[in-house]
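Students often ask why we bother predicting the structure of a whole assembly rather than each chain alone. The short answer is interfaces. A chain on its own may look different once its partners are present, and contacts between molecules only exist in the joint model. In this exercise we take two input lines together and write out one structure for the complete complex. Read the inputs first and try to guess which parts will touch.
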Amino acid sequence: MVHMSEWMREASSDAPPSGISVDGLIAGERRRRTRVRVGVGVGFVLVLSLVAFVPIFKGGGVSIQPASPVLACPTVDLKATPEPGPQQSHPAPRPSEACGAAAARLTGVLSTALRSDVPAFAWNTKRLQYETLVELPQGGKIQVRIIAGHEYPDRASSQCPEDADWDCSYTVTDDKTIVIVADTGTTFQAETYRKDGTGMLILATKEIMTRNQLVAVAGNPGLTLFP
Amino acid sequence: MVDVDEYREYVAGRMDGWRRTAYLLCGDWHAADDLVSIALVKLYRHWGKVSTVEHPDAYVRQILVRTMLNERRRSWRREHPVTTVPDRVAAAGGPESVADRQMFVALLGELPPRRRAVLVLRYFCDLSVEETAAQLGCSTGTVKSQTARALDSLRTRLGGAVVVEEV
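Now the answer. The structure tokens for the assembled complex follow.
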């Protein structure tokens, strides 16, 4: 016989210490407000500048040429409704790198890390992340997803709970990047948290690489959205 | 201008209850803290208005539930590999052991999000059918049918009776 209310109270009674910092949330929200105000001001000035300068260019017969070729941004799921990024208590940093350039750079870094040609990273407009799926010639698959604005964990160890029923380990690299690796039996899953706000998830079949090799790829400093 | 001290005091007194509600909604303490953090930020943004209404708790609860319902559509962060599924054994009495509690939360987690939310609002937050409908933005009939289906699912999984107290 199960008493629903009693079960719910009991089931939620052993809460771990809260990691929520109310002061941190307040400070983050204040920073966001400041940024919004500054952004609105800058936008207003830019619009005014455009209004003022466009007639000059038109009248003088001056054409505006891009300084350098702009790389195309490969995208997936174009019709999807954009969604916010991962849950976090502070506004997400925004990469300044253009999408096409970032996709090309990440593709190069991953290709070097895997010592194999890899499909180009594409920008997923629904999940707001760069992603690619590599099928290696020697067999096996590896999927890489990179997202901006992930919160850096307070403690690396908290990502591998003691009572986890899967094989979980974590590594902190020299640049303080945290790499969590979970072994599900047939696959590895690596979650990477960089100090700069980049988050990365790698799913790889186990025949491709060892845990240490996966950590090396996941911890590669080039796989960042804030180079 | 936000009265920060008043906000802090209000939040401090209710944080534990919100975290427990969020935990039952999403089945993971880290995700629960994320949900509560989102709710706290939104509460702070609107504290000037919310603090003047009679039941600010309802506002926070609504954010928790709606954020959880939206959350199911996104974020790879929630993908956690598991090697075993929780045993589905019939339990007697209260959830005395850690395993019992985890099993119950796992069973809740197997319910569709809206049904889970209905159960949590009705039997943990002690809301009436009408209040639950208002929180979820649906009709009282929907709340009743979702409750009945959710309880049926739990009865089937637990292999026995589930007793609920009318709210």
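Check your guess against this: The radius of gyration of chain B is 17 Å.
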